[in-house]
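Whiteboard transcription, Tuesday session. T.W. wrote the structure tokens on the left side:
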């Protein structure tokens, strides 16, 4: 069971932390499946790694749904460096008791586990937390609960809000991620279920031999009931508020080192967590103690080559070395230079160099509009779409036909959940060849031009449908024509006014909408151009909008074709808003 492909998919969520495994150290003591009782009586189990020498040491705690046994090398490495490393299976996973439901119990269980770990005989009472993806969420929710012995955290590649930056984005359901992740994690749930009845306790004399069921598989729906709950809550409501991180930044009182990646599916969450706690954290130590490191890949890969781009050996982030440097500074008080360093370190693509910053986003970046232009034929790469600094005058709209039964496909980007969909930067020209994709490009830049910060698409649109999606994608075009994606976004137009309330459109009416394309840091080298793609689908990364205005997930037989238009004239100056660096 430990090597099945779906479990590899789940473990890939922590790929940012992959490093060469050390040999087992001789001076490390290991205890397996050490029980801890949560406040409601449920038993959670941990593997504990500690130095063999007697003494009291700071604790590094990791709480994971991906099987604590997968992180034995981190435990041994940490213990050999003088830490007690506690790796716990979260509630309802692997060796821990209870029922698994994502995020629901992580605040209380995290609090209880921090305080339990602080009281271990080999602990000196100072606890830091570690891990990426869902393991980063266990840290953030524990920090919100504010256990007294928590000193610092190091959350990586995780959303700041499970609605807007995980399960949904712009109101669209993140289908590939949600289905791939829930299927991968359901395997352990199924194993735990069937194990209860795998050994018959009596013999049924009434049942023929060939009717023996072998295993009681039970209902498939109950393997991941939360997936169906997600579908039942397509708008932001109290269900999502219960474990929102960004609504509770003011309750976080500890320093944090946030690690993310430009092609990571939780990129925006990492940036929002850093900036949000730095601005509104619950203590001066938290506000001043936030740090941010942004690499190239995140979930898309550790590098140096991510999909089709080699960012160079220097791009690879040694996350374990960074982690132990952080814990040496925070948990041991070692003067290792971190106190004098700038709080933000970003990898600048294009030039492929690391750069330190005083804040995120950099204050010196100037948000600049590049306006959409065309003669009404921006459809596909062969069209006449252009981007430029001058606002439009009298220009016809660009219209395309969006058919949910033939959606524009996902190609690279911050995709995750399907081995056939490789994430990262890749040439977008196969997508740009479609008539249902609008393409707008700048002329080649005469000199290097850097965009670092948040990118937004300000559009005027209409549709023949009651509801449809609008997607946007930022592209770096090389002199040979290769079009490498940088960032992207989507908006389900029923959520154009707010994420809390769906409002259907009036067919033919023009609406001004804002589409969040997330962030990037990229130098467009001299001779390169910037390109914008607009369409109405990015499938299977996001579910197809059937254009009916009905409930999410309806039958494909209900699908309707939509005629969608983008306006760019004096009254409707659609623009791409980019943060230009001086």
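and on the right, the sequence the group agreed on:
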């Amino acid at each position: 069971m430990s090597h099945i492909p779906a479990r590899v998919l789940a473990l890939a969520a922590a790929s940012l932390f992959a490093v060469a495994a050390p040999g087992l150290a001789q001076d490390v003591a290991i205890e397996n499946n050490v029980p801890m009782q949560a406040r409601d009586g449920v038993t959670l189990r941990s593997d504990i790694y500690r130095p063999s020498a007697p003494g009291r040491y700071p604790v590094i705690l990791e709480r994971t749904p991906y099987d604590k046994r997968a992180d034995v090398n981190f435990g041994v490495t940490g213990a050999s460096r003088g830490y007690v490393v506690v790796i716990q299976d979260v509630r309802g996973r692997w060796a821990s008791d209870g029922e698994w439901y994502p995020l629901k119990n992580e605040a209380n269980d995290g609090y209880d586990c921090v305080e339990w770990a602080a009281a271990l005989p080999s602990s000196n009472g100072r606890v830091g937390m570690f891990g990426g993806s869902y393991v980063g969420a266990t840290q953030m929710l524990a920090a919100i609960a504010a256990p007294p012995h928590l000193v610092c955290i190091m959350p990586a590649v995780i959303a700041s809000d499970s609605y807007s930056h995980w399960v949904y984005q712009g109101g669209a359901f993140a289908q590939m991620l949600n289905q791939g992740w829930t299927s991968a994690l359901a395997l352990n749930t199924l194993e735990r279920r069937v194990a209860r009845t795998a050994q018959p306790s009596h013999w049924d004399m009434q049942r023929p031999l060939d009717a023996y069921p072998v295993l009681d598989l039970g209902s498939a729906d109950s393997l991941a009931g939360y997936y169906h709950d997600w579908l039942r809550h397509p708008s932001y409501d109290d269900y999502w508020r219960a474990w929102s991180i960004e609504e509770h930044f003011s309750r976080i009182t500890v320093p944090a080192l946030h690690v993310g990646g430009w092609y990571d599916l939780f990129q925006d969450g990492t940036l929002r967590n850093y900036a949000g706690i730095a601005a509104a954290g619950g203590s001066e130590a938290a506000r001043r103690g936030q740090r941010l490191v942004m690499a190239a890949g995140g979930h898309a890969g550790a590098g140096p080559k991510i999909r089709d781009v080699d960012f160079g050996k220097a791009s690879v982030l040694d996350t374990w070395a960074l982690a132990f440097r952080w814990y040496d500074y925070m948990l041991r008080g070692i003067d290792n230079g971190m106190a004098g360093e700038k709080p933000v370190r970003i990898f600048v693509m294009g030039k492929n160099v690391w750069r330190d910053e005083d804040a995120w986003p950099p204050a010196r970046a100037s948000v600049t509009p590049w306006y959409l232009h065309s003669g009404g034929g921006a459809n596909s790469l062969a069209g006449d779409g252009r981007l430029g600094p001058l606002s439009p005058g009298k220009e016809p709209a660009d219209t395309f036909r969006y058919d949910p039964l033939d959606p524009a496909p996902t190609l690279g980007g911050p995709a995750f959940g399907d081995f056939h969909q490789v994430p990262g930067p890749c040439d977008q020209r196969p997508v740009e060849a479609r008539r249902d994709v609008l393409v707008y490009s700048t002329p080649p830049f005469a000199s290097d031009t850097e965009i670092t910060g948040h990118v937004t698409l300000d559009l005027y649109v209409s549709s023949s449908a009651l509801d449809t999606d609008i997607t946007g994608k930022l592209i770096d075009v090389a002199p040979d024509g290769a079009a490498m994606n940088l960032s992207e976004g989507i908006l389900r137009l029923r959520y154009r006014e707010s994420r809390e309330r769906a409002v259907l459109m009036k067919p033919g009416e023009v609406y001004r909408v804002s589409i969040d394309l997330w962030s990037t840091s990229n130098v467009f080298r001299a001779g390169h151009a910037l390109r914008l793609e607009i369409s109405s689908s990015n499938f299977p990364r996001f579910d197809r909008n059937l254009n009916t205005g009905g409930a999410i997930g309806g039958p494909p037989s209900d699908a309707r074709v939509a005629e969608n238009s983008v306006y760019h004239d004096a009254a409707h100056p659609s623009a791409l808003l980019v943060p230009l660096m001086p």
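Someone added at the bottom: Confidence is low (pLDDT under 50) at residues 1-22.
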